[in-house]
Design brief:
single chain; about 400 residues; alpha+beta; PH-domain like; SHC Adaptor Protein; 7-stranded antiparallel β-sheet; 5-stranded antiparallel β-sheet; elongated; Signal-transducing adaptor protein 2; SH2 domain; SH2_dom_sf
Length: about 400
């Protein structure tokens, strides 16, 4: 059985090794390192790249030379003489120690670093003519590279913003390159220095004439690039001017600019930090209000008067007295609005003072017992039917008349 056809293998593209001005093995010791670490290092532009081996394409560390200050020879600790294999690179914010294999390698590294930083071939190093020729070629490449790019101290800010940056971040440098304020194809240089206890700010104009930049001073000086303009200011001030290298740190405190209503000045305000716990969201969905149960008009009762508080033996309460003035109402049956309305019962009709006389019929005559006179009823036992004083007098008078009539008949 014939085997299935397979597509031809395509060779993997090999990576191109990065090109450097100079490269070799280099041992590095940073301030945070306890001992030296060996890397394959290469210098390109103003950056030293570090690789784990000379076959790697991707660097593991890099070091920017924009904050360069000086190079010094380093004597190993515990040694009485310089073996010629140690040197120290002093930057603005740190010092890094290096160790190489030979004295020639140390001088080569120092020469190439000074060439790209100062844009000139050093003359105070122990170098051969071939080494000086190599550094002259690197100088030409570096000048051509810088002509196509702007230096790190070039910021697109205005005149006032440049002054504020130099004032707020003095540790980042005191020389800043910015676009020209007149809108021309030139640049401006802003510097800030201390003089007799006061800060002095100066602005210099740089004109663009063809492919060159001309510094407009008493004796105009022509430069091939903006980076050469920066080097002119640094070298002609004995390195008193330091290019502004902005440290891209992030702020930790939130702040904003607020205008003062009294004097009109702008102040920087930092709001107070919120307390622990999540803040209540005002934009979130609101909870619906609790549903109310409808009440009919018949079920609604008038408000009852508050019950008097029970006397407490332990605590004495003070009942506040209302301060509302007394209101005189024409209709006294109407109570003030602050108290509940209590309706008075209607008056019942009064009973008549004298009830109607009951009908009087003929009373039976008393019987004569044993032929004697009829027995009189004791007056003390006679009780009036109604306890009315006027009615008792009439009854007594009738009783007297009845007795006289009976006496005449007998």
């Amino acid at each position: 059985m014939a085997s299935a056809l397979r597509p031809p293998r395509v060779p993997k593209p090999k990576g191109v090794l990065p090109s450097h001005y100079y490269e070799s093995f280099l041992e590095k010791k940073a301030p945070c390192d306890r001992d030296y670490k060996k890397f394959w290092a290469g210098l390109q532009g103003l950056t030293i790249y570090f690789y784990n081996s000379n076959r790697d394409f991707q660097h593991v560390e890099k070091l920017n030379l924009g904050a360069f200050e000086k190079l010094t020879d380093e004597i190993p600790w515990g040694s009485s003489r310089d073996p010629g294999t140690h040197f120290c690179l002093v930057l603005r914010n740190q010092e890094i120690k290096f160790k190489v294999e030979t004295l020639e390698c140390r001088e080569m590294w120092k020469g190439f670093i000074l060439t790209v930083v100062e844009l000139r071939v050093p003359s105070n190093l122990i170098l051969l003519p071939g080494h000086l020729y190599m550094m002259a070629e690197v100088l030409a490449k570096e000048e051509a590279r810088r002509a196509l790019e702007t230096p790190s101290c070039f910021l697109k800010v205005s005149r006032l913003e440049a002054q504020l940056l130099l004032e707020r971040y003095p540790e980042c440098g005191n020389l800043l390159l910015r676009p020209s304020g007149d809108g021309a194809d030139g640049a401006s240089v802003t510097t800030r220095q201390m003089h007799n206890g006061t800060h002095v700010v100066r602005h210099y104009k740089v004109k663009r004439e063809g492919t060159k930049y001309v510094i407009d001073v008493e004796e105009p000086f022509s430069c091939t690039s903006l980076d050469a303009v920066v080097n002119y200011f640094v070298s002609h001030t004995k390195k008193a001017l330091v290019p502004f290298l902005f440290d891209e740190d992030y702020e930790k405190v939130l702040g904003y600019v607020e205008a003062d209503k009294e004097n009109g000045e702008c102040v920087w305000v930092a709001p107070s930090a919120p307390g622990p716990g999540p803040a209540p969201s005002t934009s979130g969905p609101k909870l619906p209000p609790p549903a109310s149960v409808p009440v009919s008009s018949q079920d609604k009762l008038p408000p009852l008067p508050p019950l008097p508080p029970l006397p407490d033996q332990e605590e004495n309460y003070v009942t506040p007295i209302g301060d509302t003035p007394a209101v005189d109402y024409e209709n006294q049956d109407v109570a003030p609005s602050s108290r509940p309305v209590i309706l008075k019962p209607k008056k019942l009709p009064k009973a008549p003072a004298k009830p109607p006389k009951p009908p009087t019929g003929p009373k039976p005559e008393p019987k004569i017992v044993n032929g004697g006179f009829p027995r009189k009823l004791p007056t003390s036992s006679a009780q009036p039917l109604f306890p009315t004083p006027g009615l008792a007098d009439v009854t007594a008078e009738l009783q007297k008349k009845l007795e006289k009539r009976r006496a005449l008949e007998h």
